[in-house]
Fold:
Amino acid sequence: MSYLDNIRTFVRVYELGSMSAAGRDLRISPAVTSSRISQLEEHLSVRLFQRTTRSLTPTEQGKAFYGGASEILEAVENAEAQVVNITDNPKGSLYVSAPFGVGRRLIAPLVSGFLAEYPEVRIRLRLTDRKVDLTTEGLDLAFFLGQPEDSNLRIRKIADVERVLCASPSYIEKHGNPASGDALLTDRHECLNLRFPGATEFQWRLVTSDGPKKFSVGGRYESDDGDVLTDWALAGNGIAMKPIFEVADHIKAGRLVPVATETPPAPVQMACLFTHRRRQDPKTRLFMEYVIARITEAVRDSSVQGQLPR
Structure:
């Protein structure tokens, strides 16, 4: 077994926090994963992880080794790029993150087309509505809605995405159609909210006659999956704030109806996030450009939802 394979396995175990998860990611068995870590520890004469039946925690030596190991893998990738025309023939795994709605409706349908053009690339698509950390989670590229907090990362804006407050006809028949954000509060409407670890309050930013204003809405329903909110809205359980491209078909079919139209939600930025060194990786750049070229018009014009070119 090569030393480089052992290092690569260590890095994925460290980033994913699990031997089994790293093994699945690298397409090797748990036994091989464990063996590679043991060989590396024997070579270094240190313990890289503290292991119990329920947890795997990097030691201080493991934390120190991770930084250098990541640099080794980056150096190897850069060296390969110098001797291989990797722009025409990119290789290797690409780790991509996106929110559930964006990933399912816009990005996932494009993966097969990209891999048909670049057959030696492997796409690892991770979907989550929570905020991700590119460095600790080992991501190459993260698509997102909103505003990033880490100023050390690079950002590529795609479009400003229009959003809509919507509810089912059955909800409106029972509770009425609020005209504005103020009515959401005074009439105590059930608001369906997206919550993920770290979220402390719900605020919907709506555009009023006096400019954008935050409304602290409440409700009994919350989830960390935006598609669950859509399902709840369709079932008549409350009002959801959604990007238009995610609910355009439901609105067109009458399954959902726009509400509080006097104070519509402020648009939200769609962009992708990457580190400086990841931007230099041709497969990262190629996938980013491939996806952006095909989804820009989709998020600007919800009428093309479900009709993205492949």
Q: What stands out?
A: The chain is about 45% helix and 20% strand.
